[in-house]
Amino acid sequence: MGTTIEITPQAASLSNEEILRYSRHLIMPEVGMEGQLKLKAARVLCIGAGGLGSPLALYLGAAGVGTLGIVDFDVVDYTNLQRQIIHSTADVGRKKLDSAADKLKAINPFVNVRKIETRLSSENALELFRDFDIIADGTDNFPTRYLVNDASVITGKPNVYGSIFRFEGQASVFATREGPCYRCLYPEPPPPGLVPSCAEGGVLGILPGLVGVIQATEVVKLILGIGDPLIGRLLLVDALGMKFRELKLRKNPECPVCGKNPSITKLVDYEEFCGIRGEEQAVETSTADIQVEELKRRLDKGDDIFVLDVREPHEYQICNIGGYLIPLGDLPKRVSELDSSREIVAHCRSGVRSAKAVDFLRQAGFKKVRNLAGGILAWADRVDPKMPKY
Amino acid sequence: MSKIHIPTPLRQYAGKQAVVDAKGGTVAEVLSSLVGQHPDLRRHLYTDEGKLRAFVNVYLNDEDVRYLQKEATAVKDSDSISIVPSIAGGSGWTEEWKDLRIVEWTRRRRACCCLSCG
User: Is residue A181 annotated as part of the catalytic site, yes or no?
Assistant: First the structure.
């Protein structure tokens, strides 16, 4: 295997403290002083300090990667703690960047942590990537995945990819000169709405740990130039079966970004590419919405309102407001259970699925159907604080 | 009969199985046998026009069939077929695929489908 990247050690030697800290690396011929100096000279950009980013950054920091850039503009949420192990309970409400940087410095003060508090975009990605040697993609949405891929190919930086869903994961190394890129594997994103987040699909907390450390391993291998990196290989992780399978990835000679005649040589509008440009407005301001306070007031008054709950049965068990349960996916075939002469208020967890339900019902001829804005979460916030939130 | 590996998000439409046995001499026949046994899978794998969905990759053993003979690729009994979806980190395929019809319908109307909220 040829050299994918060449990291040139900047320092001639390590301090006594560093030698002691990294002794378990130094005594291995595969690392040694030369390898540790390469780690110290390496600059790795971690996109995301969440599920995948947590173990990734922690292990790279511990390993002695000299410069760790972290890109995240989010704030630590209580629901993150189940899997985003770089953050602790005391960090809830803090910026993820600050929380992550604190933990990294505590583990290894020799690491230079660069906090990049920005939403990665076509305007800033290329300039940012040029300052680093390797990109580690720990994002959670398709537009950013494609953006990171394209920017990695254009700037010539390997993209160590990991992704997870529930209890399954994927890992690979994209965007090397000889190897494929993300678009070689997935030329097109799925249509929007087919790809919900952890909040909708759920994820086994340990899974990003498993996959994130695989990513960290690949980063270290690339820096040291040892082992067989996952170039041209897609590792499939099935945590429930504890099975690891591997599929061959080919570089697509017609790939619009990394192929022989690339048609994409600059960054594009990725939200438009993924089909979600201009759609953000629809859910926010809609005359089909009803606020939780108004629903509560009208139900208390005894108004005849049919509350339709379009969540899943297991969500209904967590909490409910006594609605009639028809999961969104079953709505088309169970629509006959609804009476279009009655006023219907549809709700889900946060208002997204129920907005789809309302659209569907309106097209099906239901005139008196509205969406509970903010869903049962808003109900728990503003009407019934005793209701659990999830 | 060859084996088909079913990715997590589709297992609920394949009787919760991770691996399904299917008959057929080509990839097309094997997938057809699969959706014949589990009809709910059809709309998740194929568009209304009967084409394999663009973000679904099919592998014969460890090779992407796009680089073989696509759906005409020959399949032996000892072979295994894998269906490999694109997943996006914290996001991914999910049981929301069962509301594919609603989503496809709303997509045509460019309704909002926020990727990262629940």
Answer: no
- List average pLDDT for each run of 10 residues in chain A, which is 390 residues long: 75 91 96 96 96 96 98 92 96 96 98 94 95 92 89 96 88 94 83 50 88 97 97 93 92 92 88 62 56 93 93 90 90 87 92 88 89 93 90
What superfamily would CATH give domain B2-108? Answer: Beta-grasp domain (3.10.20.30)
- A174 and A238, same structural domain? yes
> Is there a single domain that holds both residue A99 and residue A128?
yes
Q: Where are the alpha helices (DSSP H) in chain A?
A: 16-21, 23-26, 32-41, 53-63, 96-107, 125-129, 142-155, 182-185, 198-201, 207-224, 270-273, 280-284, 292-301, 313-318, 331-334, 352-363, 375-382
The verdict on A108 and A193 lying in the same domain is yes
Domain ranges of chain B: 2-108
Can you list the alpha helix ranges (DSSP code H) found in B10-76? 27-37, 42-45
Number of domains composing chain A: 2
User: Choosing among B17, B44, B79, B102, which should be mutated to test the A contact, i.e. which has the most A CBs within 10 A?
Assistant: B102
Q: Is the ipTM of this complex over 0.85?
A: no
B56-60/B80-85 β-pairing: antiparallel
| Inside any domain, residue A4 | no
Note down the domain range covering A128.
16-273
| Phi, psi at B21, each rounded to 5° | -85, 140
Q: Report CA dihedral (B107, A164, A106, A73) to the nearest 10 degrees.
A: -10
CATH of the domain at A211: 3.40.50.720
Partners of A186 on chain B (C-beta within 8 Å) are 55, 57, 86
Q: Do A190 and B104 touch (CB under 8 A)?
A: no
